[in-house]
Design brief:
Two copies of one chain form a homodimer. The first copy, chain A, has 331 residues and is α/β, with parallel strands linked by helices. Chain A is 39% helix and 22% strand.
Chain lengths: 331, 331
């Protein structure tokens, strides 16, 4: 047991990514909606893997990528998520602990294997994901350590988990504990299809439970069922304390009460693979926030971290993010 | 059974690489000779992995990387190597078959797990490897299919396998079958430490069994125990039919009877990770050779393939090598 303060605890799926290159025709043939995330079962995962090109394996999972980014930026982070006690699970655990992240969720000792996400990267650098949730589905409220949540300035929740009944209960417990301890709750909407499945619940969360909401343009317009970004912006403004809206190569917008910040995108030397862009934006933003920086600086930090991760394959930072940010922000 | 002709059959270790970044101090602390390959056992692998930073996993193995490069260049290739029937073994098999490589070696059903190579990449892009050979050690003469070797223009052997008694017998069988069928045998020396362990045997092979020898500067000078590259060049000239000597950023030299070709290095936009440089040079060279190209063109193809693989993490090509080469060679 420890009582060390934490900047962020992330709760999400514990997934190992398998990245491979593919073309649009391959996506069409296999009915994979480009840019989206499709849930698949173990036999579908095996069938798709069989058809995929050669891959590289690396730890992923949206909230896990975010806490990895926070650690890379010098923050103190923890992760809650469920692996199986199998080789892929060991890889996932290793990759978080190796960068100093507190990760004590007990692995499942039976049942399905560690979750895998088959990520197909098209020549335009877009990623299309097919996820076998595996052992992730076993995450439940018992895995949420009340003391750990209370130690963290921000508890960061991954919208993807809303697909799982037990995980929803884990979220509800985390939200209650965090707010009772005077802490903040952040949520990322994760995926437009995910928003579609739970629109009413997510709007209710945004209004009553979430302090900091992360969404990209497709997700936020889907949430409020409008085609117009500005219309969605006006709606979310009345809901959360802070809304962070990312718009790909159009930059990002941060809204908090009367404040609105428009952050231009970072110049991008080399676009290779967009996997992890949103996750690392959140990492940069939350790092800034927990360091007490202005919302404008938080947005810049998000943009810089996102630009780094999309300049190479894989969803976790490779470069020295801390140096990159102090270089670009001059502090 | 098939009787389709093959360009190259590669025989080597079936290894999954785990790549992580490290600094020189980490190498010193763990007694890892920079740029070299150290053999470790399963418990040493577990202990080192525990200390390493976060990694990415991708299929590797020297000869396997070479046949992957040959397939990427449009050649017909096969691989012989031993995995265990475990998840890492499945990854290894998938990654070769997914690019059309004939790979029918029966996986081991018991014993140690699939081989892993812990690759530490330092900021200067050098790679230092620690290899747990795992199921690879079970490769033996029974795994060499005489018909397959006889179908291949070139049988390519990985010097690393010389560490294993059964694999040596597999090599001897492959050399005999290939030569009886009027085919060529190629060998890569693999590693200066490996050359050190088997100098006398490798010289004997070079004189009597090997038609095409691949070595880098450190390996060839170690083989002939001289500090001078030119001295080693003169010695090897009298030994093999073709010797292909790579010199890193100094380019490469090809020697065959009276012919000597000096190939300047390719311009390199971005040096990231030297893992696989030698393997992909061999892929480009052997592709050219089996297409009946001149030795000069073979050398250029090797240089181009090597330059691609060192511009990103991992030891297998990511770019369209075939297009790259037809672009650069103009045919």
């Amino acid at each position: 047991m420890t009582d060390a303060p934490l900047d962020v605890v992330g709760i999400g799926n514990a997934i190992v990514d398998v990245l491979a290159q593919a073309d649009d025709e391959f996506l069409a043939t296999h009915n994979l909606p480009k840019g989206g995330m499709t849930l698949i079962d173990e036999s579908q995962a095996a069938a798709l893997y069989e058809k995929m090109g050669p891959g590289i394996e690396c730890s992923g999972g949206s909230a896990a990528n975010t806490v990895a980014g926070i650690a890379a930026l010098g923050g103190r982070a923890a992760f809650v998520g469920k692996v199986r006690d199998d080789p892929l699970g060991q890889v996932f655990v290793h990759d978080l602990r190796a960068i100093g992240i507190e990760f004590d969720t007990r692995p499942a000792e039976k049942g399905v294997s560690t979750a895998r996400c088959l990520v197909l990267v098209t020549p335009d650098a877009q990623r299309t994901m097919s996820t076998f949730l595996g052992a992730s589905v076993a995450l439940g409220p018992d895995d949420v350590d009340e003391g750990q949540v209370a130690r963290a300035q921000v508890t960061y929740l991954e919208g993807y988990l809303w697909d799982l009944a037990q995980a929803k209960d884990a979220f509800r417990k985390a939200m209650k504990v965090a707010h009772e301890a005077g802490r903040k709750i952040a949520l990322t909407l994760s995926d437009a299809f995910c928003v579609d499945r739970y629109r009413r619940e997510f709007i209710d969360l945004a209004q009553h439970q979430i302090d900091i909401l992360f969404a990209n343009e497709v997700e936020i317009t889907s949430l409020y069922q409008t085609a117009d970004f500005d219309a969605a912006l006006q709606q979310v403004r009345g809901h959360c304390e802070v809304a962070v809206l990312t718009r790909g190569d159009k930059g990002s917008v941060i809204v908090s009460g009367d404040e609105v910040h428009i952050i231009d995108p970072e110049p991008l030397p080399n676009l290779v693979d967009t996997t992890g862009a949103g996750d690392l934006y959140a990492a940069g933003f939350l790092s800034g926030l927990t360091q007490g920086r202005t919302l404008h600086e938080c947005g810049r930090m998000g943009s810089i971290a996102a630009a780094e991760v999309i300049s190479h394959f894989g969803a976790r930072p490779e470069a020295d993010l801390k140096a990159l940010i102090s270089d670009k922000l001059g502090n």
